[in-house]
Design brief:
Structural class of chain C: alpha/beta
Oligomer: heterotrimer
Structural class of chain A: mainly alpha
Largest interface: A-C, 23 and 29 residues
Helix content of chain A: over 70%
Number of strands of chain C: 9
Number of helices of chain C: 9
Distance between the termini of chain C: 43 Å
Chains: A mainly alpha (254), B mainly alpha (244), C alpha/beta (251)
Number of helices of chain A: 10
Strand content of chain C: 25-35%
């Protein structure tokens, strides 16, 4: 445990140092400038647009940082040969990955909380009632970040940062259009159909499960079951990804 | 040292040239700085690529549409491009965006596209089945722009059946039936308006409803010449516009 | 027990296969042993397979054939690693940490905690002469300072066996001297040292036993005394002659 905490802490420090926190500043400025401009442009729909823009930005910044930082997470250690220092000590390789993952997740959690506070704070300042659904949407974005971070970690155990990034964005795009894939799969020839549907349910991520931001601005609130299932799906799917990453990393030579 | 000077001179020169060309380009004659083109990206592409950012994209398109629409409304020619496609795309992306439907209904109706407005509102009603506003607005478009009172009556009646419906939905439906000469339907509607008004204790509405009930009963009995009757108008081409 | 072998390589071979069908043999059937308490120098020109050998002993690579045993066990075994130290070539550590933070990080990887940890870190900083720079970020360290903090991290667990990959290359004379002094101290403490080098003067001064690698093959081995004929030839001459002979045979 001590080892994991040390690696996580170190990763956290490293990612924080990457001026990631500037993203939050950009986020806050963007929201405030937008809220001033929109009042003049949007014919009375500024509150709706600020709500949309805020939730979309919380999600977008998180995703971009998860993918950009996540892909270089392992590669940087290889590139700078710091991995030699760590892995020649009695550190289990899977624990090394757990530490890296937790470190980046700490950064992303902090980022999400800060952006969320800035967003909700602005709404309170503007006198807009803050519904439970808005909190839920932010939490769901965070659950999505767990999946994306684990996924980029997996890619980064066997691929270069640029390729990992491409894979990760492709999976993100797929994940948000999973329904289309399912429709196509159902139309495929028998045999292929079962294969594709299997991939749909088992292998590929369905990120639409974490996307309630378009609904909550109209007062939608996710029920207890939906929240529970989203948490379960995020954790279980990430665990699956992590196991693959651990196996690949275990077999890897440096 | 000489090489640094070289770079500084080159830099200053480049900056000067950039400024000059910038100034020249700005002073080129421009046709107009108005928003005279409304670009609407292909719906299929946008909806597929939105990846969960549907609302935000709708907002962006909405802002663009507003600037264009506002500009064209104050211009003299009152010609609009792409309005149906723009409203359609925005409401596909964000199917609860009531204000977009509302503006769309008037903007499309005003630019002689009432059918596009009705189609858009039908989509809105499908996605917001408990909201009486969508069929109500559709009724209004049918009445004011399409001049199709039969279809309007159907829409108002549907609106009246939704939860918390505006009581004007019934009044409007009743009046529409009256103008179409559908006395039985009109009578029923007014009676139901009367019942509602009595329950609410709204004296002025009770008076209006009573007056109309009596009038229709007298008309039906042949005691009185029909009022409010609209000249028959051929709307068979839009036979399906009132059906859900 | 006749000898206490602490590192054993038997028929060690490492072949890298890369796409599409390129095979590069970095180590070819290499065997040697290192006794406890010895200072062993693995010599060879660049690309001879020195670093590959060390990585095999540290479990960073796995042999294509042959076997390695370190401290009587497998290099992968955490028990074994807990008793081994390693200084990589041209170490480049987490630059945003201070010297002390970096050593604390390494100590945590050995599950060290509390007062014992802090005491050990202070000792090591003293040993490598870095006490005054302990609170400076590694990004501000010179190459020699990095090398010294690198030795400190390799010693954090008080290892029995220490692998040093080119510990003296690329240092200025002062840094060179300091590293030499640290290595001698370790030797005096009875540690087993295994280092890779192509700097013959250092090897001659510090090592008991040497092996020379050339293009992945072991071309000579023995005590420094035996190879140099008890000082009749310099080790550098022996090295150059051995490599040239190997080249001639290879051709």
């Amino acid at each position: 445990m001590n080892q994991i905490v040390a690696i996580a802490r170190n990763t956290f420090l490293e990612t924080i140092r990457d001026r990631i926190l500037n993203a939050i500043l950009v986020f806050a400025v963007l929201l405030i400038v937008a809220s001033i401009l929109l009042g003049q442009l949007s014919a009375g729909q500024d509150i709706k647009i600020i709500k949309d823009l805020g939730l979309a930005s919380v999600s977008f910044f998180g995703v971009v940082i998860a993918i950009f930082v996540g892909t270089s997470l392992v590669h940087k250690e290889l590139d700078k040969r710091t991995v030699f220092v760590v892995l020649t000590k009695p550190v289990n390789r899977a624990r090394f990955l757990v530490g890296k993952l937790l470190g980046l997740m700490t950064t992303l959690t902090m980022l999400t909380i800060l952006m969320g506070l800035a967003y909700l704070g602005l709404l309170v300042f503007l006198g807009v009632p803050v519904e439970v659904g808005l909190f839920q949407a932010i939490m769901f974005s965070w659950l999505e970040l767990i999946v994306l971070t684990t996924m980029t970690l997996l890619f980064s155990t066997f691929s270069s940062p640029v390729l990992s990034m491409l894979y990760a964005f492709a999976m993100y795009f797929y994940g948000h259009n999973a329904q289309t894939f399912k429709l196509l799969a159902q139309k495929a020839a028998p045999g292929l159909r079962e294969l594709l549907l299997g991939a749909y349910y088992v292998v590929l991520p369905n990120l639409t499960h974490f996307d309630i931001k378009n609904r909550v601005v109209y007062g939608y609130t996710a029920g207890f079951e939906q929240v529970g299932l989203a948490i379960a799906y995020s954790l279980v799917y990430s665990l699956g990804l992590f196991c693959v990453a651990a196996v690949i990393f275990h077999k890897r030579e440096f | 040292m000489a090489s640094v000077v070289k770079w500084v001179v080159a830099g200053v020169l480049a900056a000067g040239l950039a400024a000059a060309s910038n100034w020249r380009i700005e002073s080129l004659p421009e046709p107009s700085v108005e928003y005279n083109i409304l670009f609407v990206p292909p719906e299929k592409l946008v909806t597929e690529a939105a990846s969960g950012f549907d609302n935000l994209i709708a907002d962006g398109l909405w802002l663009g549409l507003l600037q264009y629409y506002g500009d064209r409304v104050v211009s003299d020619d009152h010609k609009f491009m792409n309005l149906p496609a723009a409203f359609r795309l925005i409401t596909r992306l964000d199917s609860h965006f009531w204000f977009a439907y509302w503006l769309g209904a008037f903007a499309l109706g005003d630019s002689h596209e009432p059918d596009a407005a009705i189609t858009m509102l039908r989509w809105g009603e499908q996605n917001n089945p408990d909201d009486y506003n969508y069929p109500y607005l559709a009724g209004f478009v049918n009445f004011a722009f399409a001049k199709d009172h039969q279809a309007a009556a159907n829409c108002f009646e549907r609106s009246a059946k939704k939860p918390n419906a505006s009581r004007f939905a019934r009044t409007m439906a009743a009046r529409m039936y009256q103008t179409e000469g559908q006395d039985a339907l009109a009578l029923g509607m007014w009676q139901s308006v009367l019942k509602g008004a009595e329950a609410e204790g709204d004296k002025s509405l009770i008076a209006i409803a009573k007056r109309n009930v009596t009038r229709i009963q007298q008309e039906m009995a042949g005691l009185r010449k029909p009022a409010f009757r609209k000249k028959p108008r051929d709307v068979s081409a839009r036979a399906d516009m009132d059906k859900q | 027990m006749m000898d206490d072998w602490i590192v054993e390589a038997v028929g060690l071979t490492k072949v890298y296969t890369s796409f599409p069908r390129k095979r590069v043999t970095t180590l070819d059937n290499v065997s040697f042993k290192v006794r406890r308490g010895e200072t062993f120098g693995l010599l060879g020109p660049n690309g001879a397979g020195k670093t590959t050998s060390q990585k095999l002993f540290l479990g960073l690579l796995r042999p294509s054939s042959g076997s390695v045993r370190v401290l009587g066990g497998e290099p992968d075994d955490p028990e074994v690693r807990a008793r081994v130290g390693f200084l990589p070539e041209n170490p480049y550590f987490y630059t945003y940490l201070t010297g002390r933070e970096f050593l604390e990080f390494c100590a945590a990887l050995f599950d060290m905690r509390g007062a014992a940890k802090h005491q050990r870190i202070d000792e090591l900083l003293m040993l490598v002469g870095m006490s005054s720079a302990a609170e400076t970020q590694l990004r501000r360290y010179s190459k020699g300072m990095l090398q010294r903090i690198g030795i400190a991290q390799a010693l954090i667990n008080d290892p029995e066996l220490i692998f040093l990959d080119e510990p003296t290359s690329g240092l200025d004379p002062l840094g060179h001297k300091q590293i030499g002094r640290i290595i001698k101290t370790l030797k005096a403490e009875g540690k087993t040292l295994f280092f890779n080098s192509h700097i013959m003067v250092d090897v001659e001064e510090l090592c008991d036993q040497v092996a020379i690698l050339h293009k992945g093959r072991l071309v000579a081995s023995g005590t420094v005394g035996a190879l140099t004929g008890d000082g009749r030839e310099s080790l550098e001459d022996v090295f150059v002659r051995t490599i040239e002979e190997a080249e001639a045979i290879g051709r």
